[in-house]
């Protein structure tokens, strides 16, 4: 069995996503969301395929990918923890929560633990402002964070 | 009749453990061999009582909350299926003071019905507005919306009817309705609640907007931080399509209208309408200069109505009960009701829909009950990250667009963040500049560069380096940002910064230097 070069593999899987979504009006963001869901990030090798199919330059695709906070250039850890750092959470001590969490996980914002277990990111509002401070772990929402909940989160991401 | 148990599926309730409560109820039903239906409703918005579980009894709904999974067994033991007493018993939900004091027009069904049941929706007054609209000429619908006095609930407060009129009167082969559901302001969650709790009201509002302006296609642009709202809206659109509420013949009329749900990608600035349009088109979310107005050249260069979720969700009640009914609520030029979101360090946090005109003090002290920590309220930020910080001395300001503007503030999307006396207003001012720097789209210089210089200058104040001179510099910088920025991100960041400086000057004085240890 021959190993396929990663680039070709990415290109063919990208082409399938592009094919499915390019009929939409303004298809680029849906395509990029689809690619990030498929690969866990937006690989460089996907960009020329998208550019070609949408008849725009690779620079334009690059410009869009890098504009939005959501699109990753590298895969995240197995868990993604987003901690709200906006005003409503600040008023309930999100600074202290962030400090404690960074210490528990041994990483800072925008970092992934060395064992690949978790990526920590700040987020500016999850719409849970009446149950602050809040976080989102792999898409699940958590409100009224306290020391006990932080310990639970740390245990869950390490397991 | 099979008993009905309501356990909210709203994100805020889920964040407080509603999923575990639902599982516990399911398990208890199975263990006891009781047949009952669990309905995942939205939230009524009293988050200090979430998860709030309700049961439908012969004497109406009875609420219990906040319910922990460990409470569930004892709830059954106390006969909660027939409204029996338990320590979490709250009685009839609409008699709970926080809810009883409200005027629910836009949020009338939110938390009450099964969000995906069109039958529930209709049984609670849904679709009447759209039914009226399909029998009217577009200009008459626009006239009603204009006469209702409805103004953009996203923050700008621009009259909704005027916007629609421009789109109606602009000729084009295609027009669009775009719903701005990029609710990025901290302290706001009204859009999220309505999408999760009563999605059909938004769909109905958008269909009415389409018929009124001749637009046949709608987009809802929802931020990616709201996965539950995205999932709910997608399901609701499917249901609406199957029921003929969307499609080539809306409710059997000759009007065509269909819509798509689109997801943002984590850029705060995309809540600005022109940036949102660029994002929908698949471009970088940079702001466009106006004119041309989106109403004339909007999405893909076509005439576009772009409205906030709450503006569109308020249209069905106006078309159902009439412009005069809606206009009857409110004060001055702020007509109707506004869903106020009370958030942050507050005892009774949640969504409070009321007619315009309540004072800030009534909202924070009487409704909100002061801080959650029990300490004195130091400041409240009204209108999200771009809104001003108000001290207690301005608590007599009535909730009204013009009254807030007169006090150098804004009501924005009507979110209020309460801070206790431990808040450091210099840090809050610094954060406003920092946030602007992180989220600036980069198109205009005052916002892109000004925000970074703002952070540096405030840092100098914190270090006690010629503070008076730096405050002068920040004031001048804020003036440039306010009048020189293309959109509200750079243009309104001065509100939190200058209000912090003007109302809380003590926090900007150099910290007393600790004496050096000999």
Describe this structure in words.
Chain A: It comes from Mesorhizobium temperatum. Chain A: [2Fe-2S] cluster binds at residues 84, 89, 125, 129. Chain A: Keywords: 2Fe-2S, Iron, Iron-sulfur, Metal-binding. Chain A: InterPro entries: NADP_DH_HndA-like, NuoE-like, NuoE_N, Thioredoxin-like_sf. The complex is a heterodimer of chains A (159) and B (518). In chain A, 40% of the residues are buried. Chain A folds into 2 domains: 6-67; 79-158, Glutaredoxin. With 159 residues, chain A is of the alpha+beta class. Chain A has helices at 6-21, 28-39, 47-54, 58-67, 87-90, 94-105, 147-158, and strands at 79-84, 111-112, 118-123, 135-137, 140-142. Chain A is built from 7 helices and 5 strands; from the N terminus they run H-H-H-H-E-H-H-E-E-E-E-H. Chain B is an alpha/beta fold. Chain B folds into 4 domains: 4-101, Glutaredoxin (3-Layer(aba) Sandwich), CATH 3.40.30.10; 119-328, 3-Layer(aba) Sandwich (Rossmann fold), CATH 3.40.50.11540; 330-420, Ubiquitin-like (UB roll), CATH 3.10.20; 425-508, Up-down Bundle (de novo design (two linked rop proteins)). Helix content of chain B is 40%, strand content 14%. Chain B has 21 helices and 16 strands. In chain B, the strands form 4 sheets. A 5-stranded mixed β-sheet of chain B has the order 2-1-3-4-5, with helices on one face. A 5-stranded mixed β-sheet of chain B has the order 13-12-16-14-15. Chain B has a 4-stranded parallel β-sheet with strand order 8-7-6-9, sandwiched between helices. In chain B, a hairpin with a 2-residue loop joins strand 10 and strand 11 (334-335). The longest helix of chain B is centred in the last third of the chain and has 18 residues, at 445-462. The radius of gyration of chain B is 24 Å and the shape is globular. The N and C termini of chain B lie far apart (82 Å).
